Amino acid sequence: MRDLYARFGGGLATIFLTLVLVWLAAMVLAPNLMMIDYALRPNLPPLQQGEPQDVRSLDNFLYLANEGVHRAIFLKTIWASALVAALTLVVCYPIAFWMAQRATPAQLSIALMLVIIPFFINEVLRTLAWFILLAYRGPLNAVLQGIGLIDAPIRWQGNGGVLAGMVYAYILFMLLPIYNAIESLDKSQLEAARDLGAGTVRTHRRVVIPHAKAGIATGCVFTFMLAAGSYVAPALLGSPGSRWFTEIIYNWFFEGGDWNRGAAYALTLLVLCLAVVLVTLRVFRVNLTDVAK
Amino acid sequence: MTADRIFRGLFVLYLLAFVAYLFAPLLIMGVAAFNTSRFPTVIPWQGTTLDWFSAMWADAAMWKALWTSAIVAVLVVIVALPVGTAAALVLTTLHSRARSFAYAVMVSPLLTPGVVIGISTLILWRQVGVGGGIALIVVAQTTFIICYVMLMVMARLQRFDRTQEEAALGLGASRLMVFRRVLLPFLRPALLASGGLAVLQSVENYNTTLFVRGFETPLTVFIATKVRTGLTPAVNALALVIIAATVIGAVAYEVARRRQVTRQPRS
Predict the structure, then answer these.
(1) What's the pTM value of the predicted model, to 2 decimals?
(2) Which chain B residues touch A273 with a CB distance below 8 Å?
(3) Which one of B9, B29, B34, B137 is separated from B115 by 20 to 30 angstroms, measured CA to CA?
């Protein structure tokens, strides 16, 4: 604090501090505290608010725990998000390794450009692209039928569509951290492994993956978090049978009209995401400072 | 050795499949904008047309959505740039142990799911009687966009030589003048870049915006609603225009940055 004033003088330092404190207090802290308060209170008409029955309890959370459909969707969202992270990892790992260790500088700069361009494009538009590709009378079904792989069109919308769209949407968040991690691996280690007789699989398992552990953890955490909190992909690519937890939350707010329950659900999602992030980072000994790059 | 060659061949195939995976959906979406078919697709091709572009151009709701997004983006930049810069300066000047805690708090919005930011903002402001609308969209979006600005400014600050400030002070400049004439010019590239990023983040945001939009319809909401209520290739035409604009913008930025780097070589 004193350093700040010494460096910028009273006026500027006060302005900086005020801006930051207003941001943290009014935009970061207060909304979350109010959400917690909301989540603990029952949903009452305005006149009864503050009356004796307006007491804090865990009822809204218990409702989620006891309502079978919502609980199932919550659990499904968790494991499906983990599946998205795992699939994205499988898709990205070979590419990341190739980019970091095998590609020539020219190939690398082209590859980087190719993976980054799609991610400058709006997530809604990317999802729209998948919506069109996977449509019942869309190009994918037409091609598959054309080459005789399937007899009748497949209804991709649903779990499969959501999965495909999400893996696509989060590739970059997985690819870049892993690429950064593998890039710092000394080539001589790979050669040493080879000279000592290790095959491709073994080299990866014993040398590359342990080295890239932090990058892999970072990529997985981000992908999981983005997937669990995603709304576009399930809304556009899903079907009534593949509802996502965020859609349930949305319904509490704009269709069910019970903001308190919605807040409890949102808080559950937030706690889940933060827990996954913090535990993973702790287990893999990654620093928060390295993650946010 | 043959096993090696097979492996290498397989990998090249995988690489090609990966590139196809990245671009085929976008390509199909773009090309479908030129198909006469009422539902956007490329098979069957019913004839080439530019009608969907004029349909998009004539859509008043689209212009309104674009306008809403533009206003929001401008306001977001106006709020996020100063606050993000202040946050970066405060954080890099802090020396105490409080720093890592402050850092964790300041990047926490990036670790919060977008829908939760939208929801908590909505709930807080309802207490003071403010409902969803442009103001709340701006508030909710800046909450996390400030983090991006902060991180980009911090990255630039790491290469700043504080002796420049001392030299200016020694030459008799006031602290305000040092800030305006030494630090701000140094931060200029980072501020421009984070301004661009802020616009991009703001315009493309959907998860957070959805909850605080009230009766406003920004561009992403407009597109998502179209997909569910009546998708025609006019939406593809719009998508194609947006994609072209984003890619041209990104390339122009990159070219400008490289030119800057070659003009004033700095490590």
Answers:
(1) 0.87
(2) 111-113
(3) B29
